[in-house]
Amino acid sequence: MVRSGTTRFLDFREGGVEGAKLLAxxxxxxxxxxxxMGRPHGQHYDKNEVDELLKxxxxxxxxxxxxxxxxxxxxxxxxxxxxKRRFALHASERVREDIDxxxxxxxxxxxxxxxxxxxxxxxxxxxxxxxxxxxxxNLFFGKVPPxxxxxxxxxxxxxxxxxxxxxxxxxxxEMEFAGRILRSQGHVDLPGVVDMAVRSxxxxxxxxxxxxxxxxxxxxxxxxxxxxxxxxxDLVLRSSERDVRLVCxxxxxxxxxx
Length: 258
Description:
Strand content: 15-25%
Order of helices and strands: EHEHEHEHEHEHHEHHHEHEE
Number of helices: 11
CATH class: Alpha Beta
Distance between the termini: 18 Å
Number of domains: 1
Helix content: 25-40%
CATH architecture: Alpha-Beta Barrel
Number of strands: 10
Strand order of the largest sheet: 1-2-3-4-5-6-7
Largest sheet: 7 strands, parallel
Structural class: alpha/beta
């Protein structure tokens, strides 16, 4: 991740408390740093288990409403919010799910919305719920995310890589896929793709929506080789990790390919 310019990553961590503990060492250090969205072992709410889990995670991230008894899921969401942690879930990835039930859980953000209707997207926009889209994972499973439709609806979109078993966590590759899908859907907006990867990604991570270069601000930026053309075209459609020259994250830095 660091080699392709990613200094933070958000992980929907399975395995309950044990799974969260495995990832905990990656919250700090010279590697890309983890924001852990844990989940209980089973599809049921247990107050004691959730209390213990919340000691190790930054929030709760659930697979979907289709996998849980709804009242159990509601209790889990309410518990998470009482503890002032973020609650998120996958939604309408394989089949369309009831957006009213999803939004009644008051999620911090949703993941996928591949099978969402135009009305579902409008409701997300009205509720100001960001959507994390994962084009490469969706395409692997035979789904094309409605990126242009989301943009037209005014949905705040962030870009994710989703499933590390089928897609390396490389945001440069994900931006390229997103840019090409948008173009195929008649919506050419390469600056918007960069915004999905950077600004909206920071919002989902619950960080400031912009990067400051003022003295005393956290050092968090990437330098990438210019190809001398339109910078957005070069960055979104023509760049790979071999073009990364420097990645800085707080006090750590990594110098790229020579």
